[in-house]
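Bench log, entry 3. Co-assembly request; chain sequences pasted below exactly as received.
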Amino acid sequence: MNYPVIKSKSKRPYQICKCCVMDTSDEDIVFDSNGVCMRCNEYKERIEPEWNHGKGHEKELEELLSAIKKSGKDKKYDCILGLSGGLDSTYMLHLAVKEWGLRPFVFHIDAGWNLPVAEENIRKVTEKLGVKLHIEHMNWDEMREMQLAWFRTGLEMLDAPQDHAFISLIDKYSQKLGVKYILNGYNVCTEVVADPASWEKGSGPTGDGTYIRDVVDKYCNIPIKNYTYTNGIRHKFIIPYVKGVKTIKPLNLVEFTKESMIKTLSEEYEYIPYGQKHFEDLITKFLEGWWQPTRFGHDIRRAQLSSLVVTGQMSRDEALKILEQPPLSEEESQELFKEVCSKLGILEEELKKYHEMPECTDKFKSQEKIYKFGIKVYEKIGLEKRVRK
Ligand SMILES: [Zn+2]
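Structure output for the full assembly:
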């Protein structure tokens, strides 16, 4: 196919952080006089002291677990856990059930893109833990059309149909089941360096139904009737503050590393790791492993590896060495390209046309301003634990 990974499309002179591996492929990156990026500085100043690598949070965890159990007394479930089959959500399920004695409602979205290895992992872990898995099967004709719609926009972030569905379903289940706690797998350990906002240009926030509906209205050729939407106000304000449903991130209260997670899951459940974060899903693997690096010059591994570097789990040299190789080999990329075309039922020429089209200049309706304001407030009161830039 001969589409090389682009180093960077940014017009800025190339520069890379002296501490992590974030570089000017993020157009908005800011370096201090020592050549250290703002993400590293923010991690050191704001996040590491409080997180402390998961150490010293025993009392907080204990109180949290007893509050969850109390809230779920006499109910079938005491919390909700969305299981993608990825490392973080799977490890959280292991801790929740085996170590903490919680009774989560565990659900998984089947949007048509699951890879067999992920399905197998999910089966092995839930069976061994004796947990009933609720699978939400999305309407494939609609998911297919929505995925094509996002390709037609020329935007970079094309995972929106699946990501939004996940958030909407969490909101829906929390209301339906009357459960007061949602377990969120976000963790400082492997995710503290978020994907740069500059890579998401033109897209609305993932949980923002206004944006999702606008793309659907403009770019879908069939009516979308079965898809569940949510919106920022419902998700970020009404459900947590009016309905009192708390989204908690308990992985930040325990000590672990990416390696120790893999070891535990492999030993206890014969869990098979995927090689790269989010590679449990065909479309995400294709988008993050090939589409973004070759069309936009953005390699999501920069953020993922930087998280490991700043938290001391990997040396910067090791991370740089990994980045020298493309995320997927030429053969793997070609195979994925064909598989995605075949799943979507389109000719390879059509997908190539989307890959070569100009970047999106269309403006979509969104609640972005409300979101940004919310993040600022959350940062001020110490609720935002991610370096979002
Ligand atoms: Zn840095």
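The chain has a mean pLDDT of 93. Strands lie at 79-82, 104-110, 133-137, 181-183, 246-248.
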